[in-house]
Amino acid sequence: TYELLTALGLLLVLEGMLPFLMPDRWHRILKIMAQVEPVRLRYFGLVSMLAGAGLLFFLDDVTPLHGYWSS
Are 18 and 25 in contact (CB under 8 A)? Predict the structure, then answer.
């Protein structure tokens, strides 16, 4: 639970950086994203999830805590 909350906190910090540092650019990005077809957004979401899952799998395999999650 602690690790999950830590990961969520880090995600929120990273997600908030662009709107905080470059609000005008973030606004333009949101306008562009609003025009993208839902199928393309869904594909981007799938690719992002698979990349994140792959990264977690890789990190679990190479860290000293290997096997920690399975026990």
Answer: yes
Q: Are 60 and 69 in contact (CB under 8 A)?
A: yes
Short-list 11, 15, 42, CA closest to 29: 15
Is pLDDT at 69 greater than 60 in this prediction? no
Q: Is 67 left (phi over 0), alpha (psi -120 to 50) or beta?
A: left
The tens digit of pLDDT for each residue in 5-60 reads 888 999 999 999 999 999 999 999 999 999 999 999 999 999 999 998 888 888 77
The contacts of residue 25 (CB under 8 Å, 6+ apart) are: 18
Instruction: Report the greatest alpha carbon distance in the chain.
Output: 47
Instruction: Classify the phi-psi angles of 22: left when phi > 0, otherwise alpha if psi is within -120 to 50, otherwise beta.
Output: beta
